[in-house]
Design a protein that fits this description.
The protein is mainly α. It has helices at 21-41, 48-57, 62-90, 94-110, 115-131, 136-159, 166-193, 197-228, 238-268, 277-302, 348-366. The chain contains eleven helices and no strands. Helix 1 runs antiparallel to helix 2 (48-57) and helix 8 packs antiparallel against helix 9. The two termini are 58 Å apart.
């Protein structure tokens, strides 16, 4: 019998996560400051445009606030100019308001404006025509209100502890490195214990999950970079972010390799595979790879996010230390590539594929060229 899942429509109104309280406070401060400043600069009705601009421009990052401010201001200018022109030509009837809204939609589409700017053109035109007597001074004041509100919101967002989203991204990189190490160690254990097809299938599913985890890590890094753009606190953190980005790019290659190795073993495993002496040596090498990647994860986790306390000798990428022959850890566990003089006739395809993967992983870890 099928189970009927009832979805509460009201639940769709709620977000899965709560907006940081600091951002709520900054939004409130920006609105109040923008309104008070407009009352001092502009004599007239309540500065609605300034309040709306402040509400919309305070964003999670300063760069996003700057973009929102530009989008908001451009939409308001276009909408106010459009409404003022049609008011002077045709008056302020209901049909004039509808005409301005329709034209605003078409103009925004023709100019390929962003959704924020496109929506703002029509809203601004409608508000100007319905708020009262429209004059050139009135229109200029509304534009000035918007600019004041956007600038105040940007300043407030920059001065009151601008957000830095480096920590979630940094931890995501460390987790990805740790889970990649576990995947290599899982391959080594499976080869040593002689897993059957079902066990290897389970290992393959878990290895493939690393691709999605890598994508989420890249998204966290992009969010961190966004938070550092135009952020006065960003300069101290960019070195760590650049290092994390480089590490994540190397991990992308390792994730691909460990997934391929797991898939190859699942497709070609046999009951006597464990007895092959070459396979034992391969398991040892894969275990050493796992140890090196696990050491990298520990080093990433140990890196302090305050660059003033960070280790000045930290590598900028996996390739650091390649000139001295060392790997990613303090002392690489990787040995020289294995040499197989007489491959097993039953398993030579699998053994050759695994040896090639080990060689490529070793080059990635040591920063050697193909």
């Amino acid at each position: 019998m099928a189970t009927v899942v009832r979805v509460n429509p009201v639940a769709r109104l709620r977000s899965s996560s709560r907006t940081p309280f600091l951002q709520v406070v900054k939004t409130a401060v920006a609105v109040v400051a923008a309104v008070l400043l407009c009352r001092l600069v502009i004599q007239g009705p309540f500065p609605t445009f300034a309040a709306i601009a402040a509400l919309l421009v305070v964003q999670p990052s300063i760069n996003q606030s700057f973009v929102k401010g530009l989008e908001r201001s451009a939409g308001v200018v276009l909408g106010v100019v459009l409404a003022t022109g049609f008011h002077l030509l045709l008056g302020d009837g209901v049909w004039v308001v509808l005409l301005v809204i329709v034209l605003a939609i078409l103009i925004a589409w023709a100019l390929r404006l962003t959704p924020t700017s496109a929506t703002q053109v029509g809203i601004s035109g409608m508000l100007v025509l319905t708020a009262g007597v429209v004059t050139p001074n009135y229109s200029a004041d509304r534009i000035l209100e918007t600019v004041i509100g956007a600038v105040v919101a940007l300043v407030v967002n920059a001065l009151i502890i601008p957000p830095v989203l480096l920590e979630p991204a940094h931890l995501a990189v460390a987790r990805l490195a740790r889970d990649t190490a576990v995947a290599f160690e899982r391959v080594a254990i499976g080869l040593t214990e002689g897993w059957d097809h079902d066990r290897w299938h389970e290992a393959l599913v878990r290895a493939r999950a690393l691709r999605q985890q890598h994508a989420k890590t890249e998204a966290s890094l992009n969010a961190a970079r966004e938070s550092l753009t135009m952020n006065p606190r960003g300069g101290r953190h960019r070195a760590i972010l650049d290092r994390d980005v480089a590490i994540t790019e190397h991990l992308r290659v390792l994730v691909t390799r460990v997934t391929g190795m797991t898939r190859a073993i699942q497709d070609n495993t046999a009951p006597d595979l464990r007895a092959d002496p070459v396979v034992g040596g391969i398991a040892t090498e894969v275990a050493r790879i796992g140890a090196d990647v696990r050491a990298l994860s520990a080093r990433v986790e140990a890196t302090r996010l305050d660059p003033a306390g960070a280790d000045a000798d930290d590598d900028d990428s996996f390739a650091a230390g390649a000139s001295s022959g060392s790997g990613v850890g303090d002392g690489s566990a990787l040995t020289a590539p294995m040499a197989v003089i007489r491959p097993n006739s039953r398993h030579w395809v699998l053994i050759g594929a695994l040896l090639e993967d080990i060689r490529r992983v070793r080059e990635e870890l040591l920063g050697e060229d193909d």
